[in-house]
Each structure stands twice: as C-alpha cells, then as structure tokens.
Amino acid sequence: MRRALILLLLLLAPLSALALSSPADMLPDPAQEERARALGREIRCMVCQNQSIEDSEVGLARDLRLLVRERIAAGASDAEVKSFLHARYGDFVLLRPPFAWNTLILWATPVLALLGGFGLIWLSRRKAVQPTPPAPLTAEEQRRLAELERVGGGTQA
Amino acid sequence: MIAELGHFALALALVLALAQTILPLLGAELRNGRMMATAAPLALGQCLALASAFLCLMYAYAINDTTVANVVQNSHSAKPMLYKITGTWGNHEGSLILWVMILGICGAAVSTFGRDLPTALRARVLGVLGLISVGFLAFTIRTSNPFQRIWPPAPDGQGLNPILQDIGLAMHPPLLYLGYVGYAVTFAFAIAALIEGRVDAAWGRWVRPWSLAAWSFLTLGIALGSWWAYYELGWGGYWFWDPVENASLLPWLIGTALLHSAIVVEKREALKTWTILLAIIAFGMSLLGTFLVRSGVLNSVHSFANDPERGLFILGLLMFYLAGAFLLFAFRARAMIPTGIFAPVSREGAIVLNNLLVCCITAVVFVGTLWPLFADALFGTKVSVGPPFFNSASFPLVVPLLLAMAAGPLMPWKRAQFMPVVMKLWWVAVIGFAAFFVALLASGQKVLPAVGFAFAAWVIGAAFADIADRTALFRTNLGNAWNRAKGLPRAAWGAAIAHAGIGITAAGIAGMGLAQERLASLAPGQSTTLAGYEWRLEEVRDEVGPNWTARRATITLLRDGAVVRVMRPARRFFPLARQNTTEVAIHTNLIADLYAVIGEEDAASGRAVIRLHYNFLAPWIWLGAGIMALGGGLSLADRRVRVSAPNRATARATTGPRPA
Amino acid sequence: MTPLSRRLLLAAPFAAAALGGAGFYTALQRQRTGAYNPRGVPSALIGQAPPAFDLPPVPESGVEPFAAADLRGLGQPALVNFWASWCVPCVIEHPQLMALSRQGVPVFGIAYKDKPADSLTFLRRHGNPFRRLAQDVPGRVAIDWGVYGVPESYLLDAQGIIRWRYAGPITPEVLEQDLRILLARHAA
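Above: the input entities. Below: the structure tokens describing the complete assembly.
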C-alpha cells in the first residue's frame, strides 16, 4: 500500500531526503494554521497520487502548503483557496469530490444503499408472511411417489 | 534443482486440484461413495504439494539463488536472513504461492476436521475448494511462475526495498490471506449448499466458525497493516482510505455481516438465502481486492507489478467464480425455505439492521473506491475520492450501527420489546452522555472526538451490560454471578468482547482526533514542550547498520524535570537502494503514544527539524482490533463449534451429562 | 412478492456481476490501448490562454526570457517545456526537443527549481533547443500552469491557446505518434 507509494516518490526523486516541513513554514496565528492544515488535508498531492499535501514531503506538496498558507494569511476564504487550486489542477486535486451532476450517484450512495436495503427487507418480509405453496411434483417425482406408496418403506442400501 | 522441484510441486498440485474438483463433485452427483472418499486424501496431497513448492521458493530466497529470476528481482544477499525469508511472499509471484498454499491448508483442515460433515456436503465443499485452487494455480503457472530460471546468473539480487524490511509488514500478508482464503471456505460451503439445495442449522454451525476465523485473521491483518503505516511512514496517520486498504476493508465488512447472519441461520434457520449471498460476496470481495491490487486499474501505487495481462486473467477468474456462483444462486436459491419467522424487533431484527448498515458502509467504500474508474469511463473526468469523502459518507452510517450494536445482544430471539432493553441500557446511555460532556469540556469543545468518546463508552458499556445481564450480576450475589459467568457459553463472551473491542477502537480513533503535534527546529541541548512533556534534543550522530547508514537523534523526554524516557528516532539511508526511511521513536504508556521523528538537519546552524506527536489513545486503535480478534477466537472455542451437530448427541451420550 | 419478481431479484446479483465484469474488462482494454491511464491527469488549462507570468532569464545563457505576452499570436504552434538539470527523464527527452527546434518549432523552456549554473552546464552538454529560456526558481509560475512534475510540456496553437499537455518525457514515440499530428493539426 503506502510503501510502494513512497517507492514511487523515491523513484521520481532519488536521494531527496525525507524532509519534514520547517517550523518556519507554519503560520504564526494558530487558528489560521489549523485552518490551513484542515484545508491542506482536502488537497491532493499530485505527484504522490494518494496523499494530501499535508501528508507529503514532495517538493510540490510543500510549495502548495506554503501557497495555501500565504493565501489564508492574505485573508482568502477556504472556498477561494480551493477554487484557486481547482482552476490550476482540475477536479483531480480535490480529495473531496465536489457536488455536481456527475458526482450525484457517488454522494447519494449512502442514501441509495439504505433505500435499496429497506426495499429488499420489505420485499422479503412480504414474502415471509405468505408462504409459497410447494411446487407441484414433477413426473419423475410422481413416479417415485407411486413407488414409495407401493413399497411402503425401505432400508438404507 | 530445488527450483525445478518447486515448479514440479506446483504442477503436481494443479493436477491434484483438478482431481479434487472432478472426482468428489461427480461422486456427490452420482452418490458414489468411493469417488467422494477421494476428496480428503486429494486435499491433503494438494496441501503437501503446495507446501513443498512454497518451501522450495523459500529455500531459493534463503540461499539467495541468483539463477531464479524472482529472487533476483526481489531479494539481495545483503538482506538479513529474516527478511530474505519473509521476502518470499513480498512480491506478486511469491504472495500468490502463499495464497494458494493457505487455500491448500484450509482444504486439508476441512478434510481433517470435517469428518462429521455429511459425506456429500464435505465432498462438494472440497470439490469447490479444488476448483478455486485450479484457477489460481493455472494463473500462477501460466503468468506468474516464481521458479523461472535466468542464465547466466545475476551477480546479485536487485530487490532491497528497505521499507519492506520490517517484521510488521512481513506478517501483514499472511494474516490477510488467512482471512481472504477463509472466505474461500465459506464460499465453498455456500456453493455446496446451493448445489444440494439445502441450508440448515448444521450448515450454519459449519459456516459460522470459518467465517469467524477468517474475520479474526482479517481483523488482525488489517490492524497490522494500519499499525505499520503508523510507525513506519512517520506521519502519525493510521488509515488513509487508499484503494488497497479499501480492498481489504471490503471483505472485512461483508465478513462482519456474514458472521452475524450465519448466527441467525444456525440458531433460527432464517436469512438463509441472504447468508448464502453474503458468503458468495465475501469471497467475491477478496477476489476483487486481488484484482484491484494486481491489475493496476486503480490509481493506487503498490509494489506488485501492474500488468494488464495478469489483470485480464484475474478478471477471468473473478468472473468465473463470482458470476458462476451468482448464476447458481439465481437458479437454486429459491430452494432455501426459511423456517424461522421473527418480528422486526428481535435479535434477528437487530442482526438484519446490522447487516443493512454494514452493507451500506460497504457500498460507500465500494463505490468510492471504484468511482475514479467509473467517472473516467462514463464522464471522461479524472476525479479523486479521498479520505474526506469516505469519512463524511460513512459517518452517518456508522452512528446508527454503533447505536444498534449495543442493543442487539440484549434482545431475545423471535420477538423482543423495547422497554426491557431500555431498562438494561439506560445507565449505559447515561455514561455515554457523561463521556460526551466530559470529553467536550476536557478537549476544549472539540465536538467530533467527544461524539466518538460517547459512542465508545456506549458500546463498551453495553458489552458489559450484556454480560452483566446474562450473569444476573445486579440481581443476585457475586458468587452466583461468578458461577453463571463460568457457565456462560464462550460464544456469548466472545461476542461481548468483540463488541467491546469495537468500542475500544472507536475510543482510539476519537482520541486521535485530539492528537497534538509540534514541529521544532532544535540545536543539540535545546528543548521544546508538548503535552506537558519537555523534549530535549541531546545530539544527532551517525550510525552504521548491516545495509544502511543512519542519522540517529537522542531526545530526552522529561516530565517535571525527571527523565521519563530517552527516544532515538533515526533517518536511515540505504545506499544500495538509494532510499531513505524514517525510524520513528514511539514511547507508549497505553494511554497515549509519544511519537518523535527526525527531519532534515541544517549543517550550518547544527539544528535539526524534529516533529513530535502526542497521540492520545492511539494504541487503543490496534488494541481494540486485537480484542475483536480475541473475541472471535473465544467464540471459535465454543463447545458448540468443537462438538459439531451430528456428533453432539453421541458425545453427550458417551461422556454423560455435564454441568453446563 | 410474485414468483417472477422473486426470480428476478435472485438473478440481480448475477446481472450486477456481469455488468461489473464487462466494465472492468473495458477498463483493462482501455488501459492496454492507453485510452485509460489511472495516473494520467488532464490539464485544467486546455482551451485556455496561459496564465499571466513574467519570468527572469537564466543568467549568462544568452537566451531571451519570456512572459505570457510573448506566447500570444506567434502564428504557429509552440511548445512550452518545464525542465530541470536534476531531472533524469529530462535527459531522455532532450534529443526530441532538439529535433523539434531544428525543424523550426518554437520551444520555450522554463527551468524549474534549478540552479542557473546547473542549467547552463546541462545545455552546454546536451545543446540548447530553446528559442526563449526563463527560470522559475520558486516554482510558482509552474503551479499557475498546473505543473506537477518535470518534464512537462504544453502545446500552444497559433493563437496561443493551450491545446495539449504532456506530463513526462517526450519520447521518440510520443513525438512521432502524438506531437507531430497535433503540430500539423494546429499549424494554421
């Protein structure tokens, strides 16, 4: 899983140290820093493919982290920062798919699944109340029945 | 020579598997006892052949046989012996052999422990297991032969992926596979039942332990993977909703539903069709995971080579088993007539609710994982579906699930009433609310973690209330309750403990919501504070290992001036692989993990970047998973499982009545 | 529930599995032909003019730097290439850029997060395919373009609208099979 992800990173950028971001990158205002962090967790690190920019130490992720912080320090709202990045990197950069006509099924999954499940339960309970009559015997079974009635019993072979 | 032997053992296993498919299945159809009797020895033989093949491959790894392509690609002479051996299954080919070998072991187990099973049922189960083996062995031999030789031999192996050299990660696949393959057994039982057109309590008594065992192993495997990510990647994260992680979560979720519905089949002979369906889907999800991990259709990066050719083969297998089973289901499931009728409010009803919610969560994970593929094909758009989606879409389903799982075990079968349950649980609800307000106040108004704590308290408290109710703890004296507790079926204990495990994991997750973090750039001798501790960087120095060099920091952890612990996080460099890894230092006191990572150093100022985490209740996440698996194991040890249905009467008769 | 609807219900899992299987099969086929690439991400800038920027030159390169305005109305398609001397695939790509430049395709280079001295050494060793060359040391202009790795190339049509983006080295195959056709298509 993640191991390989890191592998890929290392393939792309051999010898780059697993750097941590520098404390100097953080915003002085803890509330703003907290906002930046929450926002950064919703932005995909494009190179690493399955990490947010907050979790990645690729150079680009760090650049984007700084960019997010700069914008927030400049007074941009979360939505503005997101749309700024969206305009450059497209839908792919958003880890939370935006509500849109083509993500409708995705976001409706919990509701659809619940409705479907309740429907299924309702259907099967209706059936349980009215037990179905046993299927009519086939010709083969009829013959076997006649035989059974003739012999009247048997022993195990 | 050894490699050829392994190759031969694989081919032999394929032939045996083929025989194990045809003879017993045909024998069961023809009611030919001798043909059916071949199933057990064939299964044992197949198991032995697969074990030999696996050992041959392991040997090639152990001696670093550079004439074997698989070893050259994935191993290296400089690896420590332990990781040479665990490297056997650290690659696509080797992991397939492990997978099939575990399947062989399960087949042997069914044939050995299944003597009480009706002969035809056992023959059919083993036949289906043989059929699964045939497919995967054919796949292995055709596309992924690990015994391929190369000539001239390579000077040494190429594979020295340092991140894979870790014992947690080495044990992760075997545990996962034990889970996946366990569902192959319940699948085989489902298919056998469909062929026979009969599902009864005896069938349920067989399926339940297998699904329990598979579930317990899968729980451990997933927890181990998550723990590995936590301590190895150095980000303090434990679950990333990565497609590969989701691929293991899907069978776990369906397996959880199966576990519960199998109880209803066993006890009440209801939900038969549904349980069969779940057993098929659980294995289908295991196969789907295999497909997703090895075909590369999803945007998840992993170490197995992405080969569309192989993907096509696995898809073929997936469709053969899954669609084949569903086809059989479509024609034969009508024969399953439920006899147990129950009211909506009852233990059965609660289990149906559990199944509904768990399946809805499965649907969310399933759709979310596959959505990027779907969106690309349908709308031509590239989208990401990441943790924010999974968290927000599954949360509203997890809440009612946690609410309901507390009440379920306290309800009687067939028909229940709300009031008695409320009477048994009101004090648990009070504790839950108390936990919420205490957490809210203590955390500085963080609502989500507080909700998490409330539910954790609710679930753990309800598990306790369940045991208290069964032992009449509050209605009689302690000695009496103790005697009752001893007489309680282990399955009841197992269920309560597993439920409590969920609560403990929930508490851990909630606690992680309160984790604190500090990033500091320190020169030796300087210190910073986090979570009431003083963390003092003493020094950073070089260290040399067998195949790596490292920069290791020494951090002294102080509380009120007294040394608590010395932590030594490091950054390792593997020159051959040209890779860096982080060695996190973790000090745990079971209430919280103190977690330190060393980052870059600035040569000019002598400062090093240190990231420190205070992960409140983090160990509980995996502790809870361990307790869940323990509960599963305890349930497995129940008398009802050990003494199976047909022998029950005779067992009683021979040993005489026992004080139950 | 009527027997028929029950029968349909029991057949539903099979139908779902068959549908899913067909879907996965299509995905695998598309992956094989290259129509579907799980890692490929389209640029958000296709069909748009490049973002506004003005970058400094690589000192001592003797090549003029450029700004967004310089990419407008060239009258012929052009390639904007983000590269760096530390990037290994860039070495693989370089001969193709040289070939393009020899054929008269204007290639605009942006040295991404590179030391000027290293950029110069690279160009001296491998040749200079760039009509204009600028440097983006902070990497901010690259973010405005939506660059997520080097090398990355953008094809602009004669009016200066971005028509195509390729992330990764332009190999001889990419040059022959994709880029040539696109250049011809946007020649006017």
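Note for the figure: The first helix of chain C runs from residue 3 to 33.
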